[in-house]
From TrEMBL:
One of its GO terms (biological process) is gene expression. One of its GO terms (cellular component) is cytoplasmic exosome (RNase complex). The keyword Hydrolase applies. It is an enzyme of class 3 (hydrolase). Component of the archaeal exosome complex. Forms a hexameric ring-like arrangement composed of 3 Rrp41-Rrp42 heterodimers. The hexameric ring associates with a trimer of Rrp4 and/or Csl4 subunits. Catalytic component of the exosome, which is a complex involved in RNA degradation. Has 3'->5' exoribonuclease activity. Can also synthesize heteropolymeric RNA-tails. This is Exosome complex component Rrp41. Belongs to the RNase PH family. Rrp41 subfamily. Its EC number is 3.1.13.-. HAMAP family: Exosome_Rrp41.
Length: 244
């Protein structure tokens, strides 16, 4: 944030961004439902150069038992970046950032998952970031929703996620790593499109009230694009040729 690389052209005179995209264009998104045979549900996402694998286990007994809730099930999320997922080796121990992102993703998924149907149990979501390139929390959240659906966990809606941001004084969809570093604002959004409810909204940077509203709208529109790809991933696995 905060214009660290002043020499980079983030938006040229034709409105084209540093990676060749238009302002309202997301990176390439590919989602595959399933793939891990030892998990109850799983999904793999490529979101630009982000590559993330998610495994879901449960509903299952809670250990340690005192963490269970007699009224409802609980959701546990672990977001982890592989040491090789970024240019410089990352320490494999959980960082403050990974602990924060695990909490944020858990809280973004909770409104969607019908945990009240499974008292005393836990649903565990393991997120492995294999390659990171800005926007991993949104990509991971979108893949986690597909993995939960793949596990057959009843849900009110899937959470689709995408960031919007401010780059070169312009509101853009899906901020990449360079834009995140050198841009003016980054706003990750998680959204349940059928219920029209936002479950995640963070903001790193400064926006005017008008820019804030525009950013939310652009981000929500991005979530709707992701939602269609999530649904297609499940359709491909359960009704298409790609069943496994
Ligand atoms: P998000 O991945 O959700 O955008 P951040 O804004 O915290 O979350 O991180 C932006 C990007 O910075 C990450 O996607 C990743 O590419 C990079 N990054 C994060 N942690 C590290 C790290 N320890 N070393 C190198 N790059 C990192």
């Amino acid at each position: 944030m905060g214009g660290r690389d002043a020499t980079m052209v983030l938006l040229d005179e034709n409105g084209i961004r540093c990676d060749g995209r238009k302002v309202d264009e997301p990176r390439r998104i590919m989602i595959k439902a399933g793939g891990l045979k030892n998990a109850d549900g799983s999904a793999y996402i490529e979101f630009g150069d982000n590559k993330i694998l998610v495994g879901v286990f449960g509903p299952r007994d809670v250990h340690p038992k005192h963490m269970s809730n007699t009224d409802t099930g609980i959701l546990r999320v672990r977001y982890h970046m592989e040491p090789f997922s970024v240019g410089e080796r990352k320490n494999p121990a959980p960082s403050r950032r990974e602990i924060e992102i695990s909490k944020v993703i858990k809280e973004a998924l909770e409104p969607a998952v019908m945990l009240e149907k499974f008292p005393r149990t836990a649903v565990d979501v393991f997120i492995e970031v294999l390659q990171a390139d800005g926007g991993t929390r949104c990509a991971a959240l979108s893949a986690a929703s597909v993995a939960l659906a793949d596990a057959g966990i009843p849900m009110r809606d899937m959470v689709a996620a995408c960031a919007a941001g401010k780059v070169a004084d312009t509101i853009v969809l899906d901020v990449n790593n360079e834009e995140d570093q050198a841009g003016q604002a980054d706003m990750p959004i998680g959204y349940m499109p059928s219920l029209e409810k936002i479950t995640l909204l963070q903001l790193d940077g400064v926006l005017t009230p008008e820019e804030y509203k525009k950013c939310v709208q652009v981000g929500v529109d991005g979530c709707k694009i992701v939602y269609d790809i999530q649904k297609k991933a499940l359709q491909d696995k359960y009704f298409g040729n790609g069943a496994d």
